[in-house]
Design brief:
Helix content is about 40%, strand content about 15%. The chain is of the alpha/beta class and about 350 residues long. The strands form two sheets. A six-stranded mixed sheet has the order 1-5-4-2-3-6, with helices on both faces. Strands 8-7-9-10-11 form a five-stranded mixed sheet, with helices on one face. Strand 7 (about 230), helix 10 (about 240-250) and strand 8 (about 255) form a beta-alpha-beta unit.
C-alpha cells in the first residue's frame, strides 16, 4: 500500500495549482477540500496526474492534475502548440483543426484550446458545433493542417471528458510525438516573443460538404438502396451527420431511436455509452423488431465507433463484432477496387481472417 502524503506535503502544490487555475468552479472545489483538510480527496487529485499518450487524455471532470479541467486542457494545448511550432516552417500557418463532442465541459475546453493555440500564433480551423470525431481527422488531411485536436471522451462514462490529438496525416499521434507533446506541456511553454495571434476560421460548412462528397464517392451508385434502417447516436453527435448521409446516398431516412436521438452528456438511457457493451442496443433492437427493420446502426457518443445488428432466422438479433465488421468492409473494398497499389492491413489485436 502506497503511503499517502500529508496535508503539509500537499499544500504547496495545491496552492500553486490554485493560483494558476482559470476556472472558479474547480478553484472552489479545491479550496473547499483544502479548508476541510481532506487529504484523501486532495491526494486523489494530485498524486497521479493524467498522463498524455497516443490516446491523448481521458479522465473524470474535476480539479487538479489528475482530473480533466481547464488548467489541464490549457497546459496540454500549450504543449501541442509548441510541438506544432517545432514541426517546421509553415506549420503554424497550416494550423490546427479543433473539434468537440457534446459532453459536459467540451464547449468550454474547446474555447480554451483555441485561445491557447492562437496565442502561440497557430492558425485554427474550427468545427464550431459538436460533430463526430472522424470529421476532425478528415479535415486535417483535407485542409492540409499540421494537426487536429478533438475534445472528447469517446465512449467513456458520463463524468469523464478527454482530449485526442491527430498528426498532419490525419491519424492519431504515435511515438515519439506523444512524448514530445507531454514533455513540452510539462515545461509549461510560453508564447514566443513578438508572436502575432493566429487566425480562427470556421470551416464547418466546407468540411461537411467535402466529407459528404468523399463518403458518397465510396458507394456504387447503382447498388441496392431498399433498406429499412434503425439508427441510434446513443445521446451523442452522430445524429448531426449520419442520417443526412444515408438520405444523400439514396436510402430512405433512417428511423432514429427517439429516446437517444439528441445529444445528452448524462446518457440517461445507458449504463455505459459504448455500443459494443451488452444491453447498449436494447432500445434500438426493440424498435427494429417493432417496425420490421433490416439493420440496426449505432454510434458511440463521438461517433468514431460503429455497431451493427441484423435479424437472424429465429427472430433474434445478432450484433457483429468489430473484427467481423472489419472483415466485411475489407472484403467489399477488395471486391470493388483494382490496381497494384491496393493495401489492406490489420493491427496486432485484430482478427487474422483478413489474410485469407
Amino acid at each position: 500500500m502506497t503511503d499517502q502524503p500529508s496535508l503539509a506535503e500537499l499544500c504547496p502544490e495545491v496552492e500553486a495549482w490554485l493560483a494558476g487555475d482559470p476556472d472558479p468552479v474547480t478553484r472552489a472545489e479545491l479550496t473547499e477540500l483544502l479548508d476541510a483538510g481532506d487529504v484523501t480527496a486532495l491526494a486523489e487529485r494530485f498524486t497521479h496526474p493524467l498522463q498524455f499518450g497516443t490516446a491523448g487524455l481521458r479522465g473524470e471532470l474535476g480539479a487538479g492534475p489528475a482530473r480533466m479541467n481547464r488548467s489541464v486542457v490549457r497546459r496540454t494545448t500549450a504543449g501541442v502548440a509548441s510541438w506544432v511550432l517545432d514541426c517546421g516552417r509553415g506549420a503554424a500557418a497550416a494550423g490546427v483543426v479543433v473539434g468537440r463532442d457534446a459532453r459536459h465541459g467540451s464547449e468550454r475546453f474547446a474555447a480554451d484550446v483555441i485561445d491557447v493555440l492562437t496565442s502561440f500564433g497557430v492558425a485554427v480551423h474550427v468545427l464550431a458545433p459538436p460533430l463526430p470525431t472522424p470529421l476532425t481527422a478528415f479535415a486535417v488531411g483535407r485542409l492540409g493542417a499540421a494537426a487536429g485536436i478533438v475534445v472528447t471522451a469517446s465512449h467513456n462514462p458520463a463524468p469523464d471528458n478527454g482530449y485526442k490529438v491527430y498528426a498532419g496525416d490525419g491519424a492519431q499521434i504515435i511515438p515519439p510525438d506523444d512524448a514530445d507533446i507531454a514533455s513540452a506541456a510539462a515545461r509549461e511553454p510560453t508564447q514566443p516573443e513578438g508572436t502575432t495571434a493566429g487566425v480562427v476560421t470556421d470551416v464547418t460548412e466546407g468540411v461537411l460538404a467535402s466529407y459528404r462528397t468523399a463518403v458518397l464517392g465510396l458507394l456504387d451508385p447503382d447498388g441496392p438502396r431498399d433498406l429499412r434502417v434503425i439508427y441510434t447516436p446513443m445521446h451523442g453527435v452522430g445524429g448531426a451527420v449520419l442520417p443526412g448521409l444515408l438520405r444523400a446516398a439514396g436510402f430512405d431516412a433512417p428511423h432514429i431511436v427517439a429516446e437517444q436521438a439528441d445529444p445528452d452528456p448524462d446518457f440517461p438511457t445507458l449504463p455505459f455509452p459504448n455500443p459494443e457493451e451488452p444491453g447498449a442496443l436494447d432500445l434500438a433492437v426493440a424498435e427494429a423488431a417493432r417496425v420490421g427493420a433490416d439493420v440496426v446502426l449505432a454510434n458511440d457518443p463521438d461517433a468514431d465507433r460503429l455497431a451493427v445488428a441484423v435479424p437472424g432466422r429465429d427472430g433474434t438479433w445478432r450484433s457483429f463484432t468489430g473484427n467481423e465488421l472489419g472483415i466485411l468492409l475489407a472484403e467489399e473494398c477488395l471486391r470493388v477496387t483494382t490496381g497494384a497499389d491496393r493495401l489492406v492491413a490489420t493491427t496486432v489485436v485484430s482478427s487474422s481472417m483478413l489474410s485469407a
